[in-house]
Design goal:
- The chain is of the alpha+beta class.
- The protein folds into two domains: 3-142, Adenine-n6-DNA-methyltransferase TaqI, Chain A, domain 2 (Alpha-Beta Complex); 195-340, DNA methylase specificity domains (Adenine-n6-DNA-methyltransferase TaqI, Chain A, domain 2), CATH 3.90.220.
- 36% of the residues lie in helices and 20% in strands.
- The protein has a four-stranded antiparallel sheet, with helices on one face.
- Helix 8 (299-307) packs across helix 9.
- The longest helix is centred in the middle third of the chain and has 40 residues, at 145-184.
- The termini are close together.
Amino acid sequence: MKMVALGELIKSARVARAGTDEYPLLSMTMRDGLVDQSAKFKKRVASNDVSDYKVVRRGQLVVGFPIDEGVLDFQSLYDAGIVSPAYGIWDLCDDTRVDVEYLKKYLRSARAMAYYKAKLRGSTARRRSLPAEIFLALPVPLPPLDEQRRITAILDHAAALRAKRRQVLAHLDDLTQAIFHDMFGDPATWASRWPMGVIGDMTQSAQYGTSAKAGDSGEWPILRMGNVTDSGRLDLRDLKYIDLSVADVPKYTVRRGDMLFNRTNSKEKVGKTAVVRTDRSLALAGYLVRVRCKPEHQSEFVSAYLTSPFGQAIRRRLAKAAVNQANINASELQRIPIALPSSDLQRKFTARIESVDAQRTAVQNLLISDDQLFASLQSRAFRGEL
């Protein structure tokens, strides 16, 4: 396949500033590229003064940083928008020579990102930059325009399948809360339906994790606060390791059915929870509290309650803001009011959540296969083998 330097396809754009004019404010994301900031974040997150922001026209390429994470995109949302003054803006030299969608896919491909990563300059990880001359020297496979469009269509089809799988996962994450409200109703009405108590009435123990320093080796994989997701699940990727003495194993390890409570984070995220749904041997770090329920109670019920809007409001009221972090300790957690529905109803809830989790695992495995297929198609496409 014919190869050309990127510099034959794009050129530096003439910089225009927002000044006093009004434009849509755009943000760069790793997954979705350029997005309308108000739609993405539901609020404005840029500074009030955007007069120095760069105007980006439809069809121009915007390059952010770190470039080796694929933070670049062609602007296709508006006739003109504005982006951070730190971003680079490039014009396409000749749209009869290269298809914009094809070029975007290549510039965000694993092959291109490996090139960026190898050529970055600077010593601070996320602030390392790629000099313009090196960016423009990137070799780009350039088949005829019709072939570019054919490749783009194939990759778009594979990407659409991955997007649908992610949508299914998002719906399954939402289903837990839907089941919770279907079975237990609005927590504001609980006092008229069940005996009321506190979370401590339901717990057998509440144990802080270990303060031992984690590293890349050790006998025990360790869960840290970053492994507890916003959707109330455990993400078992990117685990560190520790060693534990025989005496510390019962204190600092988890078992299936334990609830993990994130006792420190931002005020919006402190108190995130996740239930352990694996028999894998795992330790827990000191920023987490391991809550082990009494046999007649279910941690799935407690976790769903704390993840509900009602529970989140309680967590925010309890959070004690420090300089950058908010905190809720184990004693405060155990004093949170909660209904005490029957053991049978709690067990039925857990069974339904476990069924949803099994479906989610199956979809997640399919998404892994989709990702592998997409990577294979992408690699073959840019080698001229598709």
